[in-house]
C-alpha cells in the first residue's frame, strides 16, 4: 500500500512568522518522512485582501525559500505555487455552485477580516474557503496539517466534499475523498507579542506583534524587549490571567526543544528581566540556520524555480484527474 497523503499551504502575504513555523511548517518537516506531502504557496488567496502587485511574485518565492530553509525537502515533498495550476480556480467555481451562501457567512476568519475592510470587502474574501476546499480536495489528501485557526476551513472542506458525494455520487462510489484535519497541540496557536489573547498574524498592522522568521538578531532582541508581559514575578504555564506568560514560555519550550515540565521548573522563580534575554538568545539560535539557508536559496533563483517547476508537474497531473472526475460527475462532457 502507498503512503497516506497530506496537503497544506500558506498565504505568501509578507514574511512568514513564528506562528506559521511552529503551527505548520515545523510539523510538515516531520510529517514528510511518513506521508506523501503536497505543500503549496497559496498566492491566489493572497489577493483576497488589498495587495501590492509589485511584491506578489517576490513574496511567493520568499515563502517557497522559507519552506525549504525550514527543512522541507523537495525530494520528499511536492512544493508548488497555487496560481501555476488553474485547476484550483476551476474546481473552486464548481464548488461555488454547490456551497450554500450561509456556510460562508459564518466563517470566523471572514467575519474578522470583513470588519477591517468595511465597504471594500470583496466576493473573493467571502469565497476564500471554497477555493481552500478546492486546494485540498484536488489532491485527495488523508490529512490536512494546519494550526488551530484553520480548523473551521478544513471542516467546511469536509462539508463540501460530503455534499458533492451525496448529491452527485453514492455511498458505495463517492466522487472525492473526505480528508481529516491534523492539528498538533504544540504550537497550534502562537499568540501576538502585543496581546496574549490574540493570535500572531501577518495581517496585524504592528510588526512588533510578531517575530518574522527572517528577523535579524537585533530586531528579535528589540521585539522581545518590548513585548507585553505582566508585573508578576515567577513564570508559569496555563494561568488564564497571564496569557502573555503562557505564550512566551511556550515559545521558549518549542524553540529550545525542552519539555514543558523542564521549562516550568527552570522558569518558576524567574523575573522577566532574566527570562527575556534567555528567550531572545534561544530564538536567535533556533532561527539562525533557517535564515542562513533562506538567504542562500534566495540568491539561487534557478534552483528555486526548478523545484517549483518539478512540483507543478507532479501536482498538476493529480489535480487534473480530480477535476476531470468531478466534471464528469456534474454532467460535463470532455471536449473532442
Ligand atoms: P495562513 O497563511 O494564515 O497560515 C498558514 C499556516 O500557519 C498556521 N498559523 C498559525 N499557527 C499557529 N499560531 C499562529 N499564530 C498561526 N498563524 C498561522 C495556520 O493555521 C496555517 O496552517 N487559508 C490558509 C492557507 C491555505 C490552506 C489551503 C491551508 C489555502 N489553502 C489548503 C491548508 C490547506 C491560510 O491563510 O493560512
Q: What would your notes on this structure say?
A:
By secondary structure, the protein is mainly alpha-helical. It has helices at 18-31, 53-69, 87-96, 101-105, 108-117, 123-137, 151-168, 217-226, 243-256, 260-267, 272-298, 301-330, and strands at residues 5-10, 36-41, 77-81, 143-145, 180-182. β1, α1 (18-31) and β2 form a beta-alpha-beta unit. The mean pLDDT is 96. Helices cover 53% and strands 7% of the residues. Strands 1-2-3 form a 3-stranded parallel beta sheet. Strands 4-5 form a two-stranded parallel ribbon. The radius of gyration is 21 Å and the shape is globular. The chain binds tryptophanyl-5'AMP (TYM).
Q: Multimeric state of these chains?
A: single chain
Give the % helix.
Answer: 40-55%
**Ends apart, CA distance between termini:** 36 Å
Strand order of the largest sheet: 1-2-3
- Topology, number of strands: 5
- Given as residue ranges, the uncertain stretches (5+ residues, pLDDT < 50) are none
Count of DSSP-assigned helices: 12
- Average predicted local confidence, pLDDT: 96
Please state roughly what percent of the residues sit in beta strands, choosing from under 5%, 5-15%, 15-25%, 25-35%, 35-45% or over 45%.
5-15%
Structural class: mainly alpha
H-E string: EHEHEHHHHEHEHHHHH
* Distinct small molecules bound, one entry per kind: tryptophanyl-5'AMP
Query: What coarse outline follows from CA principal-axis ratios?
Result: globular
Largest sheet descriptor: 3 strands, parallel
| Global Rg | 21 Å
